[in-house]
Write a structure and sequence with these properties.
Structural class: mainly alpha
Distance between the termini: 91 Å
Number of helices: 10
Number of strands: 0
Oligomer: single chain
Radius of gyration: 30 Å
Shape: rod-shaped
Length: 252
């Protein structure tokens, strides 16, 4: 194959010679890639901000003198991370049950039961929020290689048809069109690999955060129901340690 024929081959030539199916599959891969990188950028930025805000809130929480100070901070600046969101709802549940008791079926049981249900609900909400977009990344990572492979098969099929109609089946006539068709497989892999890597990274990060949030929920529940952290009474034996004071009960 001479230099002129070689230069005529390539991705642009493949697109020009592709039919509707080939161009449609390429468009699907481009859309998948754009969606994947958009999710990666969005979730990466969200994860960074969430980690920074969570660290700031936890530092404030464990250095606060009482849960009333935590409540005042949340009322002033609002809940902007999973830990402050959980704290805000748990404190609200405690105050609400102290004011109204079990006025509705959703509030049935003791204050401990109501706070426990509220914490579990918030944990479920946060888990759902953390998993947003991961299904899309997993789908792209799993299907993009096959979309590219189908494009390659379709391109090879049409290339062989064209070669058969021309009556020339020599290697220099076959290698160019078939090589062009293989581009689609490469594109499919280029779309899938970043999506799979990002999915694994986000899944691990979410699992770690969920474990930390679950541990914090246990501590918070103990503060609201017992007035101290688990094991705090044992830790205070022989030491002058003052536990974090619970929020003052709100009366009617």
């Amino acid at each position: 194959m001479d230099a002129t024929a070689t230069n005529a081959m390539g991705f642009a030539h493949f697109i020009t010679q592709s039919d509707f199916v080939g161009k449609f599959l390429l468009a699907v891969l481009v859309i998948m890639s754009a969606a994947s990188w958009g999710l990666i950028a969005s979730k990466g930025l969200t994860q960074y901000l969430r980690s920074k805000r969570s660290a700031a809130f936890l530092d404030f929480f464990w250095n606060a003198r009482s849960l009333d100070a935590v409540q005042a901070e949340l009322s002033t600046h609002g809940a902007r991370d999973p830990f402050s969101h959980l704290s805000a709802h748990a404190l609200h549940a405690q105050a609400h049950h102290a004011r109204h008791g079990a006025a509705r079926l959703a509030e049935a049981g003791t204050a401990n039961d109501f706070i426990t249900r509220t914490i579990k609900k918030v944990l479920d909400e946060e888990t759902t929020r953390l998993d947003t977009g991961l299904t899309t990344l997993a789908t792209i990572g799993a299907t993009a290689p096959f979309v590219g492979l189908f494009g390659t098969v379709w391109g090879v099929y049409h290339a062989l048809l064209a070669i058969g109609m021309s009556g020339s089946g020599t290697l220099d006539k076959v290698a160019g069109p078939v090589g062009e068709a293989l581009i689609m497989t490469g594109i499919g892999l280029a779309v899938a690999i970043p999506a799979v890597m990002a999915y694994n990274a986000f899944t691990r990060s979410n699992r770690v955060l969920a474990a930390r949030l679950d541990a914090f929920a246990y501590e918070l529940h103990s503060f609201l129901t017992l007035g101290e952290a688990p094991g705090a009474a044992a830790q205070q034996v022989g030491a002058n340690v003052r536990p974090l004071k619970p929020a003052a009960a709100v009366t009617a």
